[in-house]
Amino acid sequence: SASSFRLLVKNATQVVLVCRNGEKYLTRDGMQTLAVVENGSVLIGHDGLIKAVGPADIIESQFKGAKFDNVLDASGMCVIPGLVDAHTHPVWAGDRVHEFAMKVLLSFYSICFNYCILYYMNISLSLCVREVSILTSKHLNTNNEALSLCSVVCVQLAGATYMEVHEAGGGIHFTVSHTRSATEQQLLDGLQSRLERMMRAGTTLVECKSGYGLELDTELKMLRVINSARNSLPIGISATYCGAHAVPKGKTMEEATQDIMAVQLPKIKMQIASGELQVDNIDVFCEKGVFDLNSTHCILKAGKDMGLNINFHGDELHPMNSAHLGAELGALAISHLEEVTDDGIAAMARAKTSAVLLPTTAYILRLSPPRARDMLDAGVIVALGSDFNPNAYCCSMPMVMHLACVLMKMSMPEALAASTINAAYALNRSHTHGSLEIGKQGDLVIINAPRWEHLVYQFGGHQELIRYVIIKGEVVYE
Ligand code: NIG
Ligand code: FE
C-alpha cells in the first residue's frame, strides 16, 4: 500500500536548511554559509517529523504515489526552520507602558525637571516622587501608578539607569506586585495571547521564564501557568525557573538566596519528581545590586544538581565575571553580556557556553549593544532571543534579527543561524529543532518573498510576509 504523510510543502524557491550534517550548533564560518536548496520540497510524516527535504524533482519522483493529508504549493515562496526564541519573560500582569510613555511625553518634562534638581540637591527621592505624583495623578488611573511613573521619570530625566529605576521601586518590582496579585487564569490568558503573537511572527520554540514572584507561591504559580500553556498551545516551550530575578523588597540578598536554596528549590524539585511540573532550566540575574557571583554560583549549582540546564543573565550592566562562572559550571547559555570581558569571551568559547544576545534590551535601554562580532570571531556559539518582558515588549524574532544586523553588525545568515540552530542549542534542543533535517521536528515558516532575507530586511509588517507557520507538520497560522 502507498505510504502516507501529514504534509508536503513543494516547489519552494528556496528551502533554507541552515545545516545538513547534524551539527548541534554553528560558529562564525558555518553561520556565514548556510545550507540552502533552490527549488526544494519538505515532507513531514504523521509523527510530526521531517521525512525528506531537498530538491523538489527528486522528492517528487521518490514519493510518487504517496498520499499526503495536506499539500502546500510554495512556488515563489521560501521555507526556513521555525524560529527559536531563547530568552523571554512572558508571564506577568501589569504592563509598564508608563515607563515608556514618560520618555516621550514632553509636557511632563518641565514639571519633573525641577524635581530632578531637588533630587540632585539630595532632597529625598521619595519626597520628590510623592510631590510629582500629586501633580500628575490626574492623568493616571491610580495614585500608585502615578507614584511608580514619577519615580521612573525623575530618575530617567536625571540620566538614571535601569538599576536606578529598579531601586526606586519601578521595573521588576512593579511587575512583581501585579503578578503576585493576579490569578492563575489571568496570567494564563496573558501568556497565551503573547505566545500566539510569537507564533504568528514565526517562533515555534520559545524559552519562558518565571521570576516575577520572588517567593515560593508566585514562582510555582508562574511555572504552572507555563505548563498549562505547553499543554494547550502547539508552540514548543522550554521552562525556566528564575526565582533569583531580583531581591524581593524587604529582604537582603543573603536572605533571598537562603529562601531560594532552602524553600523554593526543594519544593520545585519535589514537584518535578512527582510529574506535577516540567522545568528545563535555571536562571539567576547576576548583577551588581541584584545577585552577586557567590549567590549566583550557589543557586546555579543547586539547579544543575537537580538536573536543570544553566541558562542565566550575566555581565549585562557591569562586568561581573559571569562568563567565567558560566564556563566553569558548564552553563549551556548566558544571556545579555553587554559588559563581558575578552577573557570571559574566551572562556565561553572554550566551554561551548552559548551567548544569548538580546538586541531589544540594548535598544530600549540605550545601552551599547553586546559585542557580537568579537564573540563570533572568538568562536563563541552566538544565539538570539527577544527578551520579551514588560520593559522590552517585542514578540518578534524577525525584528530581533533585524536589530541584530543593524545594531550588532551580524550578517543576515548569522542572524538566522543564531535564531534557529544556535538558539535551539542554548535550550538543549538542537537534536530536535533548529534546522530542516530528516528526523527533526517538522517546524517551518513559509515566507511570501523570493528570497528568505526579506524576513530580516523588511522590518515590521511581517504578518503580511509570513504566509504559513507550521509546527509538527500542522499549519498553525496561515
Ligand atoms: O532580561 N535583566 C533582567 N531581566 C530582564 C528585564 C526584566 C524586567 O525589566 O521586567 C531582562 O532584560
Ligand atoms: Fe531577561
TrEMBL record:
From the UniProt record, list the reaction(s) this protein catalyses.
4-imidazolone-5-propanoate + H2O = N-formimidoyl-L-glutamate
Which GO BP terms apply?
A: L-histidine catabolic process to glutamate and formamide
The protein's enzyme class? hydrolase
A single Pfam family, by name? Answer: Amidohydro_3
Keyword presence, Translocase: no
Q: Which InterPro entries match?
A: Amidohydro_3 (IPR013108), HutI (IPR005920), Metal-dep_hydrolase_composite (IPR011059), Metal_Hydrolase (IPR032466)
Q: Report the residue ranges that make up the Amidohydrolase domain in this protein.
A: 333-477
Pathway assigned to this chain's UniProt record:
Amino-acid degradation; L-histidine degradation into L-glutamate; N-formimidoyl-L-glutamate from L-histidine: step 3/3
Entry's EC annotation: 3.5.2.7
> Source organism's superkingdom?
Eukaryota
The UniProt entry's GO CC annotations, sorted and at most eight, read: cytoplasm
Question: A GO molecular-function term, please?
Answer: imidazolonepropionase activity
Name the UniProt key words of this record, in alphabetical order. Cytoplasm, Histidine metabolism, Hydrolase, Iron, Metal-binding, Zinc
Tell me which cofactor or cofactors this protein depends on: Fe(3+)
* CDD domains found in the cross-reference section: Imidazolone-5PH (cd01296)
Similarity annotation: Belongs to the metallo-dependent hydrolases superfamily. HutI family.
The record's NCBIfam families line, in alphabetical order, gives: hutI
- Can you name this protein? Probable imidazolonepropionase
The uppermost taxa in this organism's lineage are: Eukaryota, Metazoa, Chordata, Craniata, Vertebrata
